[in-house]
Amino acid sequence: MSEIPDVRPYLHAIHQEYARWWEVYTVTDAEGRERRKVPEKQALETPASPFDFGLRVQTVTRDERETPNPENSEESKEKIERLPVLEGLRKYAFDEKTRQLLLVGRPGSGKSTALVRLLLEEATLTPNPSPNFGRGEVKAIPVLVELRYWQTSITALMLDFFRRHRLNLSEAELENLLNAKRVLVLMDGVNELPTEEARSQLEAFRRQYPRVPAIFTTRDLSLGGDVGIEKKLEMQPLTEAQMQAFVRAYLPECGEAMWRQLQGRVREFGKTPLLLWMLCEVVQLFPNAQLPSNLGGIFQAFTRSYEVSSVRKHAVAALKGDVRPLSDRRLWCKALKHLAEVMMRGEKPVDFRVVIERSEAERELEKLFQKEPSPPKTARDCLDDLLKYHLLQIKTGNEIEFRHQLIQEYYAAEALRERLPGLSDGELKREYLNYLKWT
Q1: Taking a C-beta distance cutoff of 8 angstroms, is the pair 215, 118 a contact?
Q2: Which phi and psi angles does 148 have, rounded to 5°?
Q3: Within the chain, which residues score under 50 in pLDDT?
Q4: Domains contained in the chain, number
Q5: How many whole angstroms separate alpha carbon 215 and alpha carbon 87?
Q6: Domain check: are 201 and 121 in the same one?
Q7: Angle, alpha carbons 146-149-150 (nearest 5°)
Q8: Are residues 221 and 275 in the same domain?
Q9: Count of CA atoms in the C-beta half-sphere (13 A) of 160
Q10: Do 97 and 227 belong together in one domain?
Q11: Nearest Cα to 401, choosing from 364, 350, 338, 358?
C-alpha cells in the first residue's frame, strides 16, 4: 500500500479556504479579486450559513433512464432512494460495488457546492495535532478537480490543486496514490469540458482508475451524457419549506412579503437554490419591486441590481476619499456581453471557454471601444472595474472568468439577441442552433 505523505498542511489549507463554503459558487460581494480566506484563528470552525438548504439527492434507476413502463411504475418506485446530498455522495463513492458516481442536476441546483462541502468535511475528518480539527481516520485524500479549467491533462489539474494548497506531489507520487485508492477525486463540471480532447482524457482516466473513489458532476444527462458511469444521483429541487426558511433567514425584514410574491412559475424557479438567492438579492436592493415572471427577467433584474449596488459602493468610496472607478459604468454591460460572446468561440466550432487571458480580453475590449477616447486605456480601465466591482473575477494569474457560468451564458444570450435582427434563418441555424453550447 502506498504511503500517504504528510497531508496535514494541505487539509488545513483546505479548511481555511473553504470554511465559508457558500461563497465559492454564489456571486457574493464582487469587491476584491480573491475569495476571502478565513483568519487563522477561525480556520478550525465552520460558521453557520443560510445557504445550508438541507439539499437531498435521489438515485436514478435504469427504469428512469429508459422509457418508463407504466406497468412497472410501482416496482421502479421501490428502487428509488432519497438521501441528504453528502450522505448519498459518501455512501456510493466509498462503496466497493460502485466507486464512481455521477451527480446530476440543473444549473444552480447545488452540485458544485455539494462537492466543496464534501471536500471540506473530508478534510476535517482527517487526524491533526489539534483536538478541535481531526476526528477520524484517513480514508482518502480529497481533491477538487474543476474540469472547466482543463488545459493539458486531468492529472495536471489535480497536481495544481494540491500545489495551491501546500501539497507538492510529483506525477509518480500521484499515480501511486491513485493506484492505491488513497485519493477521493471530486470532478466538477463534466458538461463544462472545453474540448473533445478533454472529454477523451476524462474517459481514459476513468478506465485507468476504475476503483478510485470518484464523484463527477454534470448538468442534465441530455447535456453531455453520463460518460459511462452507471451509478447516478440526482439533485432534488427545494421544497416549499426549504425555500421559505431560506427567504426568511436571508431577508428577515421583507422575507414574508417576498414569499407572498413567489407564486406560479416564479416559485418553480425558486426551487433552484442559485435562482432563489438571486431573487432574494433583487428584493434586498429593491424591496418594493415586482418579481420577474420568467427566467430571462430574473437574470436581467439580478444583473441590474448588481450594477446599482456597485454604483452605490462607488458613491460611498468617493465620500470616503477612496479610489473612484476608472471607467464609465455605462460601458460595463456592453463589455460583459462582448466578452461572453468571445468566450463562446473555441479552437473548434463546438468548443467554448470559461476562462480568457487578460491580454486577449483587453484586445477584444479595445476593438469594441474604438469610438471611445483612447481605446487601449478605456479597455484596461473597464476591465479593472469589472474585476473589482462587477461580475468578473481573476481565476489564477492572468486568466479571467465570470463569477458563475450561468452569468456568462446569460450575457452571451443577450449578445446573440442583439444580433438576431441581422441574421437570416439559415445563419441562425448554421452558426448557433446547430451547436449544443448555444442551446
Answers
A1: yes
A2: -65, -15
A3: 1, 27-44, 46-47, 67-68, 70-71, 75-78, 128-135, 319-321
A4: 3
A5: 13
A6: yes
A7: 100
A8: no
A9: 15
A10: yes
A11: 358
C-alpha cell at 383: 476591465
Which residue, 235, 263, 280, sits at the end of a domain? 235
**What pLDDT, on the 0 to 100 scale, is given for residue 188?**
95
Whole-number pLDDT of residue 223: 55
Which pLDDT tens digit goes with each residue over 42-82? 444 544 555 677 889 999 866 555 544 544 555 444 478 89
In terms of DSSP H, where are the helices of 138-287? 154-164, 171-179, 196-208, 240-250, 255-261, 264-269, 273-285
CA 367 → CA 363, 370, 372, 382, distances in Å?
Answer: 6, 6, 10, 13
Biggest CA-to-CA distance, the chain: 72
Statement to judge: residues 165 and 59 lie in one domain: yes
Range of the domain at 381: 329-438
pLDDT at residue number 285: 84
Exposure string over 185-209, b if 16+ CB within 10 A, otherwise e: bbbbbbbbbbbeebbebbeebbeeb
- Cell numbers 433567514 label which residue? 249
Which of 93, 165, 164 lies closest to 123 in space, CA to CA? 165
In this prediction, residue 126 carries a pLDDT of 55
CA distance 413 to 6: 47
